[in-house]
Amino acid sequence: MSENSKPGVWEGFKSFLMRGNVIDLAVAVVIGAAFTNIVNAVVKGIINPVVGAFGTQDLDNYSYCLESPCNPARGGEEAEGIQIMWGTVLSAALTFLITAAVVYFLMVLPMSRYLSRLAARREAKYGTPEVPVSELDVLKDIRDELVAARIARGESAPNGPAAPGATAGPPPEGPGTPEGPAGGQGPTKR
After folding, report:
1. Within a domain: residue 126?
2. Using 50, 70 and 90 to split pLDDT, how confident is the model at 143?
3. Please, which residues have CB within 8 angstroms of residue 110's CB and are 6 or more apart in sequence?
4. What is the C-alpha to C-alpha distance for residues 61 and 46, in angstroms, rounded to an integer?
5. 23-57: pLDDT as tens digits
6. Torsion over CA of 167, 173, 176 and 180, rounded to 10 degrees?
7. Cα 31 to Cα 106: distance, rounded to the nearest angstrom
8. Domain containing 43: what range?
9. How far apart are the C-alpha atoms of 124 and 120, rounded to whole Å?
């Protein structure tokens, strides 16, 4: 292959960027980053005040001390004791649950309903949609055709008895057999 026929680095990079998956991923990252601000605002403006009615608005302050005295590090001091910060874990778990709920109820559920309505309209407009054929069904059809062809030639079916009226013997002569390419007319000279 010559040097000129290979695609250049720039052309390869452009084709990589123009793939649908890369663009979809970039859009998802940008939307996800913007969506994080919404979720953080919901947690800070709604969830934390509700939790604050029972304690503090900042869940990060909730902790448990395994070994006394528990004094968190301030300034340049070292922390004393062993402190389990379960409030931080609870805050992250609530943020995750809120994010998952908002994504599901505001994005996934409406989109799936829209797509099902769209499929119903297409079915009503164009009739019954084609049933997708699986790879296994295609392979079964090929197998059945091969068995039918063997039976028609008089060979026995694989893993089964011979077809009625068929004799079990050598395969018929034809192209590719040792008798020759012309269907049993003898070997040809090369």
Report:
1. no
2. very high
3. none
4. 18
5. 778 888 888 888 888 877 877 788 777 777 877 66
6. 150
7. 14
8. 1-57
9. 6
Q: Which residues contact 148 (CB under 8 A, 6 or more apart)?
A: none
Q: For residues 132 and 138, what is the distance between their CA atoms, to the nearest angstrom?
A: 11
In the chain, alpha helices (H): 9-17, 20-42, 48-52, 86-103, 109-126, 135-153
CA dihedral 152, 155, 156, 157 (to 10 degrees): -50
Cβ atoms of 88 and 96 closer than 8 Å: no
- Inside any domain, residue 187: no
Assigned domain for 97 exists: no
> What letter does residue 59 receive in the DSSP assignment?
G
Q: What is the pTM of this model?
A: 0.43
Can you name the residues that pair with 82 across neighbouring β-strands? 67
